[in-house]
Records
---
Amino acid sequence: MGTPESTTTERTIRTRAAELTDQPLTLLTVAVFWTWLVVRWTNDFLLDGALIERGTSFFPTAPFEAAASALGSLAASLGPVGFPVGWVAGFFEFLAASIPYLPELAIGVWATILLTVLGIALGFVIAVPLSVARVYGGTITRSLALGYTELFRGTPLLAQLFVLYFATPLTTVIRELPTVGTGFIPAQAFWVAVIAFTLNSAAYQSEYIRSALNSVPEGQLTAARAIGLSKVDGIRHVVLPQGLRYAIPGWSNELVYLIKYSSLASFITVRELFERTDAIASETYRYTELFVLAGLFYLALVISASLLMEYVEEQVAIPGLGTTGR
Amino acid sequence: MSDPLLALDDVYKSYGEEQVLSGVSFEMDAGDVDVVIGPSGSGKSTMLRCVNRLTEIDSGDIYLDGDCVTDADTDVNELRKQVGMVFQDFNLFAHLTALGNVTLGLRKVRGMDKATARERGYEHLEQVGLSDQADSYPAELSGGQKQRVGIARALAMDPKLLLFDEPTSALDPELVGEVVEVMRDLAAEGITMLVVSHEMGFARSAASDIIFLDEGRIVEHGPPEQLFENPQAARTGEFLSRLETTHEGE
Ligand SMILES: Nc1ncnc2c1ncn2[C@@H]1O[C@H](COP(=O)(O)OP(=O)(O)O)[C@@H](O)[C@H]1O
Ligand SMILES: [Mg+2]
């Protein structure tokens, strides 16, 4: 079992996630958000703007503007007691103002998701052997893995992005690769960011997985070895299937962090959600609307990730294993 | 006369300063059931673990069916296929069902296909009376059932020798019986067993020999009648009378 602290964290996460699925409004919002995103992407990337011209919003602004001005005059006529109506008017104004930018932001969301998913998935592939090396390795592999983890956890992610982007030939090498930057294959900066997130996330994920592996009782590997499995096979067939289940709550945390940290990629010109928001805002000076909108999108992504992880955790749950024991 | 199935010859083992086994030697033939008794910390678990090389010995030799298994070039995984082990705290694979526990070795060690392994797995669960619990996870089983799955898991590998390390001492008293019964059946079938246990009923009825281990040395080794009725060493008698008064094994 984990330390008391980690158990508490796991509980907190689980409680929050459990509450999420109990809220129909949350589920509905998430469903609407994803439907819109998928239709938008399909139209812009795959159908070449067949449903609606690229960059043009699905939603007309006029009704929202009309509603806003009608409510505005109503609020004015009500005098001092009209302020709640004024707020509603403000909300419609916000919607009317946001609608033209939705298509552009949807493209940014695509890059954000791609960055996060690739970073977490590739990071996982590195994190598993890294954590196994930390727990079961000899002195040398152990300290190499420790060095890696400390290096990437101990330095700022932004610095890692800058070093990879500016100080290594990575950018030039990737630029020369075929198809990079054409169609919906993002340009080289995106791939540099993926590499940085992969390396960085691997370090964090390996910490979660390492402590999860440590919470698998020693007798499990002993029993595996006693039936004639080699150490590697015992780790693979007995320790990892248990440890990875213990790691899910921490791993979900890392996913949520990475969604938000992926905004750092904007510093090396990756056209993800934050970068798009910032670019449009500095053109239109509509900072408030745009960053509120971006914030809501990040929130929707984070909630979606929590829901997904809650689902995964339920799917792989085994009676008596970890906090999911039923 | 044929080779003994298991032979320990002058085995020494220490942890740092602490001498745990000091020249342990004994032999057992195929079909024998030897029960090891002795105070806590006398080296019983260590001795068992040396046999399947979960622990490496310092000096001496251990022979299984005539082969020296403590040679540096012995393939330990090959050795462990031939020596099953049953643990005090069961150590069932927590993420696998009862059947999964029994078939893991068949599939990943013996390389059996899934269907054959399942079939064999069911047979071994049947042998310990648990085929109806095949799909239960360890957390859903009682202690006695867990240990019976543990026995089935060891049996499935078709070992030449089964090692038991206090198989009933983690169990509630009312669950001891079902495990002892399974062990008696195995003994009756002629399976060679080396059992660390203070379950005196089992020792009296099923043991070929009793080995009394104290401070890493075999103090006395003989048939149950001799050890229980007429112990040769003073310490054996003391230990046995202490066992009787406390009514519990360590
Ligand atoms: N892995 C180990 N490291 C250090 N000391 C050990 C280890 N295993 C056992 N010992 C020591 O060896 C002695 C014998 O232990 P053990 O074989 O478990 O005795 P028993 O099973 O008879 O109670 C004990 O004093 C114990 O502390
Ligand atoms: Mg012991």
---
Amino acid sequence: MTKQIAAFTVNGAEREAIIEPHMLLIDVLRDQFALTGTKYACGTGDCGACTVLLDGKPSLSCLILAVTAIGKSILTIEGLAEGPELHPLQQSFVDEGAIQCGFCTPGMILSAKSLLDENPDPSLDEIRHALAGNLCRCTGYVAIFNAVQAAAAAMKTDSTGTEARP
Amino acid sequence: MRDALDKNPGFDPRSGGTSAPSTTGAPPATSRTIEGEFSCVGKPLPRPDVAAKATGAAVYGADLVLPGMLTGRILTSPYAHAKILSIDTSKAKALAGVAAVITHEDVPKLRFTRSVMAEGLPPFAYEGENQDQFILSDKARYVGDWIAAVAAVDTYTAEKALDLIEVEYEQLPAVFDPEEALKPGSPIIHEGWPGNVAGVIDHPFSRGDLDKALADSDYVVEFRGRNSRQKQAHLEPDVAVARWEPDGRLTVWSPNQNAHLAKKTMAQRILGINEGDIRWITTTVGGGFGARLSFGVEPVAVLLAKITGKPVKVFVTREEDFSGWSSRTEQRQTIRMGVTKGGTITAIEQRILSDAGAYFSHSGTISAVNMQATLGVMRSPVVSGKATIVYTNNPTSSGMRGYGNPEGSFVLQQAIDMAAEKCGMDPLEFRLKNAKGTGEPSMWEPVTLTSCALETCIRLGAERIGWKEKWHGWGASTGAAGPSPGGRYRRGVGMSIMTHASGAGGFLLEHSSAIIKLDEDGSVQLAVSPCEMGQGILGALSQIAAEGMGLRYEDVHVITGDTDVTLFDIGSHASRSTYAIGNAVLDAARQVRATVLERAAGILETSPRALDIRGGSVFVKADPTQTVAVAEIARGAIYDYGLEGRHITATGKHQALTHCPNFQAGFSEIEVDTETGVIKVLKYVVAHDIGRAINPLTVESCLQGGAYQGLGYALTEDLIIDEHTGKVLTDSFATYKMLSALDMPEVEVILVEEPDPSGPYGAKGVGETGITNVAPSIANALYDACRIRIHSLPMTPEKVLAALAAAPQSPDYNGG
Ligand code: FES
Ligand code: FES
């Protein structure tokens, strides 16, 4: 098996890892970069716990070979907050009671981020569809829907606020 | 007066203003919070554990990495019942990177049970759980039974080594049906249990002459039903890390729901060492739902760590988790109920056949709790309950959320509707007439109910679902009346009620303690040992602590999950933590408060009784301008340059022979597609007797999540086992159907707050309860819509179509 040193852009930083062709992205993220916020819950693409954003698109890192992510920009949950401030989605998940055990949370928040990036004002139905691939065993989803709506509202106010500033 | 104090900025010595903790978001519209009375209790405050979960910083078992740590994996049996003739581990051991390979020959010859709760059973309650297994088995008893284990440098090597282990099996005839297993000539699964009878439990509160009472009743109804093996399916697969320390002690990290009893079981039942030789640390827990009241892979990690002298992490895959040792116990039940013409229950009989699977685990206690809850919610002069527990070659069952209650309620609540129909009574009125209330015996009969808001729950829930307008009535054929005249789509409403314990006082050791230490800046460290598995217990306990001491919520730092630090606690189960540990915390908080007041009285030159504490500041009640900060008192207690220094601490405890039952009513409105058999839930309403919602947001979220699992239990979730091979066929999230974000119907939560005198600020339990009323209320709605009854869960379209085809279109038909 050929090992290679591969370069990734992870959470905005250039990172290198020693990878083999069979390695999955989730293992490289967790084992080599110690980014353990990305969760393994099924390994078969059925639950969404391992979701990361690859060039902005939600992707299941348990199904993706690490080699295919070389040179791409990877966002994991650890890269979402800028500095000590929580990202509006993280804040709304905290505030709305959308987190119980938290195992689905990183994947759920990243799927929601990708939705809000494309559609800043989603309807409830659009939120449901965007999160349909992310299972949550604890919450019954309702608080999660509320959190995404609250974050959308907060981000709108934010961006209006920023734009209005000279 | 209080209001004036709230607005007085002088009362917060540190922030100089906002003494009230910040609230985030409005409380749920349906909850009734008591404004002004409390500063922390009853507020939707953010939980202390969730920010770390939102950022990915929380450390779950799989995230833990220790220096020199090895990976452990387990070889499972491909056969449901087989003798192990030989195991050759030589090739596996020879593989580079393999540190140890173990089989049944290497495990302690002490039998144990996975249920760590067994250690908390009092000798007078039941005989306890059968101690019937070794860590690695000498005979395969189900597909997935543990045969051997490997520790290696990494997962890849460990799994390669598993492939190199050569096991020679001799297949034995297997039995998967509990009724078959009882027949003479069936394969015997455990030598010590002839006839595969794992146990028989008589309900301790059976009384009266059943035959006579039934013969004397105006009507007798009978309903048989069976629940599915619902899987806990916590999103975090099972995992454990173990390390033997240089001083000979053992440290275990795992998501077990019951750290102190897990430690005791490990010490006494598995290793034969002292409890003090083990330190048990609970990692962040990715969901429990009862699965983690049993040992998962901890014993294997402990053994591999011992043999290799290195820390070892053992984990399972999702497929192994589904095929493993934990699901709701399948129970086949019959309820017979006698009633008078006037609608008074005269007798209830319950018979249970409980399929333990290959090992006993929780199947005994779960049957006992089933009977307590099922036979304990309605008043009846004659009661009879009996459970037979059977070994089969199915995967070992265990306890899942509700712990017997969702199993029994599915059958009882349909029988209740049938009895109401016989009497021509509205099932709502029938329940109101026969359900127990304050002053009557609880589900554990020596205990008297000190509060019961069931009637309010029923009335509010009925209002929200529109019971009066929507329930069709018994006489009316669904073809002729109501909003869904006989077309393809038929609508119906149904209801269900339940009682559940807030703890296990009476039938299990019910003992919790809490430690509070007041640091020099006026903040406190609260050490408690519930398992925070997502239910929000750390937040609720912090709120109780802050309220009890008069401190701010943010001044409380909670420490949990380390048996070296926390005092004994009986674990997180039985919907007990807020109630029981909450009482222990409140006890400690009041002691700290008393010490602070005493010291403050010296400074303010008055008596402690003249003082109160709010927002971290002590003040004279008669003159609130006279204050001293709690921080000043705490600092003075530590930085005392004389001889009176003493760090202010307190330990509080809760111990009880009661369990403060809570009550709940659930209502479903459904639409049935009579061509496809699909049941669509339009709305579910749950009204819960919470006593007091310490954190209404958390309680609402808990009930939403319970409803979610209840909907899955009712309609889709089922561990399907191949009846020839015993293999679990639904071993992935693709085949085991849990509801997704697209499937979740509207759920309305109503919190009924009628404080119980024994709860912390009146609180009762809620954790497990949200699941229980869903399936029976849907089943009763199905009868309202289509006049059919389904006898087994889940209520799939196939079963609905079969029942529709079999149903004579008569209003009397009850599905036989
Ligand atoms: S872990 Fe990748 S989808 Fe479940
Ligand atoms: S919060 Fe536990 S799985 Fe979603």
---
Amino acid sequence: MAIRERMSGNEAMAVAMKQINPDVVAAFPITPSTEVPQYFSQFVADGVVDTEFVAVESEHSAMSACVGAQAAGGRAMTATSANGLALMWEVLYIAACSRLPIVLACVNRTLSGPLNIHNDHSDSMGARDSGWIQLYAENNQEAYDNLLMANRIGEHPDVMLPVMVCQDGFITSHKIENIELLEDDKVKAFVGEYNPKYKLLDKNNPISVGPLDLQAHCFEHKRQQAQAMMNAKKVILEVSEEFYKLTGRKYGLFEEYKTDDADVVAVILNSTAGTAKYVVDQYRAQGKKVGLIKPRVFRPFPVDEIAAALSRFKAVAVMDKADSFNAAGGPLFTEITSAMFAKGVFGPKVINYIYGLGGRDVKCSDIEVVYDKLLDIACTGKVDSVYNYLGVRE
Amino acid sequence: MSSKKELKTIAPDVKWQDITEGGVMPYAGNAELFKTGDWRSMRPVWLQEKCKQCLLCYPVCPDTSILIDESGKRTDFDFDHCKGCGVCVKVCPFKAIDFVEEGK
Ligand code: SF4
Ligand code: SF4
């Protein structure tokens, strides 16, 4: 029997970490992810985990300590947000290229500046090319579930890549909602042991990690890293299937909500997808054929699947809680439109909305603007503006 | 320099499918296969007759290029790896190491 509880998204992530019982957690506090290591250090103090908790002096050190611990042969985890993630930047790339499946709980917060502690996706979106797998979560349950699956995905021999599990700062990280937890022994059996091929603490087989890698071999390592990310898609689906059998909770590369006969859809990450589901229900009650696609896996990007899914609609709005400042559209928009182009999907009209930056509240009325616009485009076939800001005063 | 054990390394023509993940070097001691001697512009010359075998030069060489024989005495330099940094020249209290321009 699963355990019915109620807790915040941060506590849910900390509980997942407790059940995973990693060898090392190295973390530095930053709003809104602070509670994750805070709860976790309490578990350490209470002796309910075997983890070595390293209270580092910065996020750069947090990720560096994780790299060392993981290279030694242990499981390492951390949590951060916004500028904390930015301070980890160079080490994020080193973790990925060194093929160290570290797991990071990313509680999304806008990356300064301007200085702001609230939610958008500019932190993790900035790290999208660092070589980390990225999973996104609508609520505390998905944040917990994704975190439980993260080790299995990252540590798979065909993958060996670090995994970032993202949820929305404050909106889900601090909101207390119902949740279903797995029993400790079931998590332990599901997550299993970490047995990497190479580990620094294997004294009978000495290795060097992170050597100088020049023109002769660096390119081959990058090609191999690209393959690992390609392999990750299959592994994510396999692990998710196993998780479904264990919990009854089904996860794919993205979730489709009321899309079967939809004319138009919005594509939305994380908590705002929940708001959009409510609006979809309202519009459906009025007979309007609207739907929602909520990506769960952003890295690897499900190019084939998302292009095929979107090919069925007349109009699509891609919603970005981060701007790329490329004067053309946000990161999710450019990924989706390039996926559609590459796969020869030219039917749907696609527009982009930048929304909710710096924690600007996203209300049902905002989502209604999007669906109204999409229904208008589906009707007229005309797009007057591709790159738009939603809910900004103008 | 002859080595007692067989040294394995990552081949220069290895394909991406076969290279170790993340650049891990699973074979110890193979820096020996990387010849750094041709980086040298200055060359240390061991003056055997002045040498007192005090061995002060041996530990300072950053490239382990001062070779010691079975009886614990220094012999000539390992010119496959000596980079010509001159540290041993400075350290020798008996001026038993000359330092000359390479190629002269
Ligand atoms: S320091 Fe000079 S004298 Fe001493 S062993 Fe080396 S070369 Fe010989
Ligand atoms: S010159 Fe430098 S590298 Fe060469 S033997 Fe002397 S200390 Fe070693």
---
Amino acid sequence: MPRIYFKTVDRYVEFAEGEEVNVLRMAIREHCDVPWQCASGNCGTDRLLVEDGAENLDPPRRRERARLGDLVDAGYRLACQTYTRGDVTFSWDPDQVGLDDEPGSGGGSRAGWAGTG
Amino acid sequence: MAELMSHSDFRVALEQAFAGTMAKDASFSRAWAAGKLHKQHFVHWATNHYHYIGPFGDYLGLMYANTPDHARDAKDFLLQNMYEEELSDDRHTDLLIRFAEACGGTRAYVQDRNNAMPFAKGMQGWMYYVSGRENFVVSSAALIVGLESQVPSIYRTQYPTLINEYGFSEWEAEFFDLHITSDEIHGERGYQIVLKYADTPELQQRCLHYVREAADMRFAYTRALYQTYVEPDLGPWVEEDERQPALVG
Ligand code: FES
């Protein structure tokens, strides 16, 4: 079975062979603490560094390219915009906030206030 | 008498409840994905879709009012979903109208309720009914698990066709791109709320009933789009692999 390795929290999430899965959906489903806010490619809170397996990801579409800019070339993807069909490894800064938010501004993880626990 | 299912068994039961009647398999969706539709068909689709999902904020607002204070996470999710539909970016219905305009339609045509099929008005009425009258966990199962969580599976097939076969720009087709991903997350959060708060066998069974009903409603509505607008132009829908022997033979 292919699996996503959420390295920052040391968690593996498996999915069925032949499926393409949304990375943020899998992170939320399995409580992997990826920070996020908008789920629609606007805020950049859920940017992840692809450490391995980039070839298994679908190419970034317009919203993701526009939001990440040069970060795409530096190996980043937005979890909410990204689908994978094979093994992949991601890491991130657990304290990161949206790309337009100042650190410490409270613009970070929505999982904290809207999580279902 | 049904027993209380574990979260994992209940999740599988919810997924199976709409597996056989997903709107992506209805004739209009199949013709869309096969590149057979004309721009005028898309104007009709957008018009009907507008009257079906245009009041989504209303439906969520009714569900919000029906959700008790102790289910704070569920209330917050509904509020967040409402905000994202209406305010966080371009209003979702404006993106839908942008697509209709790219197909030759107008805002006035799309917004005129007289241009929608009875099926679309039926969908709208059913959604007002369920969101206004049912327990919040049941309406979450119906509208979010049964309907919203289907959206990525539909648009992930249709979006590339819009760009590659029908020739729309990414800007014109942004409505679809946005919903592929945002509804993945809304759908998943909906599952979590239903799994958490459907905490009696009766509630679980009622959720399953409404997920089936939601899927049936959307399938019938999507099939009616084909019968009403496309069949007069293209004839009854026949799958390519069924069409092939006839062409050869
Ligand atoms: S959560 Fe905002 S860009 Fe993905």
